[in-house]
Amino acid sequence: MSDNHLDRDVLNSLQEIMEDEYPVLLDTFMTDSEERLRLLHLAEHDKDAGEMRRAAHSFKGSCSNMGARTLAESCRELEELARRGELDESAQLVARIEREFAIVRILLKSERQRFPAA
Amino acid sequence: MKASPLTILIAEDSATDRMLLSTIVGRQGHRVLAAANGLEAVALFESQRPQLVLMDALMPMMDGFEAARRIKAMAGEAMVPIIFLTSLSEEEALASCLEAGGDDFLAKPYSRVILEAKINAMDRLRRLHQEVLRQRDQIARHNEHLQNEQLVAKAVFDKVAHSGCLGAGNVRYLQSPYALFNGDLLLAAFHPSGDMHVLLGDFTGHGLPAAIGAMPLAEVFYRMTGKGHSLVEILHEGNAKLRRILPRGVFCCATLLNISFRRRMVDFWGGGLPAGYVLRKNGAERVPLVSRHLPLGVLDPDSFRDDYESYALKLGDRVFLLSDGVLEAQNEHDELFGEQRLLDVLDASRDPSRLFADIQQALQAFHGEARDDVSLVEVTMVEEGAVSRPPLPASESQTGPESWSARYDFRGPTLRDYYPLPHLLQLLLEVPGLRGNGGNLYSVLCELYTNALEHGVLGLDSSLKRDAAGFAEYYRLRAERLDSLQDGCVSVAFDVRQQPGGGRLTVTVEDSGMGFDPVAVLARERTAGGFSGRGMALIRQVSERCEWSPDGRRVSVEFSWATQA
Fold first, then answer.
1. A66 contacts in B (CB within 8 Å)?
2. Are residues A111 and A10 in contact, defined by beta-carbon separation less than 8 angstroms?
3. Among B15-24, B227-236, B514-523, the least confident range
4. Most buried of the four, B99, B311, B455, B504, by CB within 10 Å?
């Protein structure tokens, strides 16, 4: 299975790389992403373009590594907006990222369930 | 190829990416240091000194650019490659990475294969840089070592070479401090007779090999001059020694001078150096001293030729020698300075004390820069008493033979082939009371022996030496008669006795010649006062008693001394 929410091939390859640590990587991504989302909301609330750019950049990087392509693409758009200081449409984009992350999170949780709890 | 394990610092603020990257790098066999921001990265670098850094660009606390700059500064000359981890796509941001000292980029998502290839490539670069630094340091160390060796060699050599009398008031010389390593050699020493020996040499080659031969040559020159050996003997010994020890193709172009202040003469032997000159006082005349022999160390002892030329000098006349660094100076058109330009300088130079400066100035004007392989020396003829001679080195020992006598008869061909004075002088210097008087002893012995041989056995008339032509004729006849000498004898007898409060030496020299009327000769010498006589005035002046037999064939001279407390 390969779709734009979560690339199955990427997950397979990550599992191969991480071996026993694979479930920990999944847990780490989910925890880390919740933190990034919190930072995005904060930056949106403060209208802090620099903080938003950094959070979006960092989130984009880990999403691309985890195979969450749509999420990574949305983060890239947000990073670009923040870089240009155009925060007018950012609230909309943050909301889109939040919805997309909810989908990715469900997919990851089911992936996580294939392995014993940490 | 599996690279050898490195310690790699990973600076990445995203926990997921940090974990992923750490695992990939760790699985490749490297030791991983992980930092969540730039500050942590700099601290970890300082304490752990990793060999390679993977650096995220945008991080909280301190960003990757600043951290990279600090790490590069801390690394100093060592190369610590920094690979920026980034999905930055704008050119401007990539340029910032390079400006901060980044060596490469790695885009997200990470690829194991590309990451490994980049780490290996950077490691190769790092090792290459390390090797270059190592070789640079090694070259610097070798160079330092070599310079130290040259300093040591120079210090040792200076001890051997500078025991001479280049500092005498009538000697002017110019030599680069490192002339030795250009193969140039300049030596000067007083002969026990009061004559001065000068050697200007130029060894083939450069550097230490050229300097090596200078040591034995200087040793021969100083030892033999000090003991009273003649120019000819020093030439033979120097040539034989260099020929024996130097490798083929290494030899020494040399000029040797014996300058006699008493006889007002210079003996010149030239082997391969550019012509020197006798420069008459007031620029009246310039007599070239042209090399007629092969350099020292070329011919085997049997083929070596020792014939030299003698020139009378007047007070104020100068003998000027130079090394080939002067004539062989080249300008940017590959032209040589050459002899004519030197002669022009000699012609134009009015003030003798400015001559060296004039030559250097001409060389600089011609060549564009000062040269360090030029050796110049000039000895001025002065009154005999005007040059201060250091006393002969006294022996350490205070004991020696104090009561003995000996007699030597030198006969026939031995008179031609052997110069007995150094041997006789050494014998006398064994006597404690005579040490420190080598100069006077030598002068008297030399005078007595020369008189006995030249005027007695060979029957030469000293009045010939009154002018330059007669001078030459005298020495021509001397050589001719020596060559055909069959009979004849010079006897030298010593009698050394202790007497109350000291001791006494009697020297008796007798020859087989025709004899002369000592009363008449002494009277003539008093009026003439010249150097052409039998040197009797000198003998009488230096010794306490001096007696000729009525037939003039035997002379006895006495020295006495008081025992030192």
1. 16
2. no
3. B514-523
4. B455
CB contact under 8 A, B23 and A18: yes
Q: Which CATH architecture has domain B7-133?
A: 3-Layer(aba) Sandwich (3.40)
By the 8 A CB rule, do B533 and B521 touch? yes
Q: Tell me which residue has tokens 């008796």.
A: B508
CA distance B96 to chain A (A): 15
Three-state secondary-structure class, residue B428: helix
Residue boundaries of the structural domains of chain B:
7-133, 162-386, 404-562
- What does CATH list as the number for B162-386? 3.60.40.10
Taking Cα atoms as reference points, which of B440, B437, B420, B419 lies closest to residue B429? Answer: B437
* Cα(A58)–Cα(A48) distance, integer angstroms: 16
Domains of chain A: 8-112 (1.20.120.160)
Query: Which tokens go with B142?
Result: 């070798």
Domain at B404-562: CATH architecture: 2-Layer Sandwich (3.30)
Interface test with A, best of B10, B13, B16 (most A CBs within 10 A): B16
> In chain B, how long is the greatest CA-to-CA distance?
126
- What is d(CA A75, CA B167) in angstroms, rounded to the nearest whole number? 89
Q: What share of chain B is helix, strand, coil (3-state, %, to 5)?
A: 45, 20, 35
Per the CB < 8 A criterion, the answer to whether B64 and B40 are in contact is no
Q: DSSP class of residue B178?
A: T
Element containing residue A53 per DSSP (H, E): helix A49-66
Answer whether B109 sits within 8 Å of A54, measured CB to CB: no
Statement: residue B157 has pLDDT above 80: no
Give how far A110 is from chain B: nearest CA, Å.
19
Above 70 in pLDDT, residue B265?
yes
Dihedrals phi, psi of B193, to nearest 5 degrees: -70, -10
**Of B10-14, B91-95, B115-119, B556-560, the least confident:** B91-95
pLDDT at A118: 60
Pick out chain A residues at pLDDT < 50. 1
Instruction: Report the pLDDT value the prediction gives residue B368, as an integer from 0 to 100.
Output: 67
B384 burial type by CB count under 10 A (0-12 exposed, 13-18 middle, 19+ buried) = middle
- Torsion angle, alpha carbons of A84, A87, A93, A94, to 10: 110
Which residues share a beta bridge with A115?
Answer: none
Residue numbers of B between 69 and 88 with CB closer than 8 Å to A? 85, 87
Compare CB distances from A54 to B20, B60, B112 and report the shortest one's residue. Answer: B60
DSSP code at position B406: E
Nearest to A65 among B16, B27, B58 (CB): B16
Encode pLDDT of B384-402 as tens digits. Answer: 877 776 655 554 456 778 8
DSSP state of B249: T
* Segment of B149-153, B406-410, B425-429, B498-502 carrying the highest mean pLDDT: B406-410
List CB contacts of B271: < 8 A, sequence separation 6 or more: B253, B254, B255, B291, B293, B294, B295, B296
The pLDDT value given to residue B510 = 94
Query: Which tokens is B371 given?
Result: 């040269």
B174-205 pLDDT per residue, tens:
887 666 677 788 899 988 878 899 999 998 87
Choose the mutation target among A9, A20, A57 for the interface with B, i.e. most B CBs under 10 Å: A57
ipTM entry: 0.91
User: Which of A31, A33, A62 should one mutate to test binding to chain B, selecting the residue with the greatest count of B CBs within 10 A?
Assistant: A62
Confidence of residue B365 (pLDDT cuts 50, 70, 90): confident
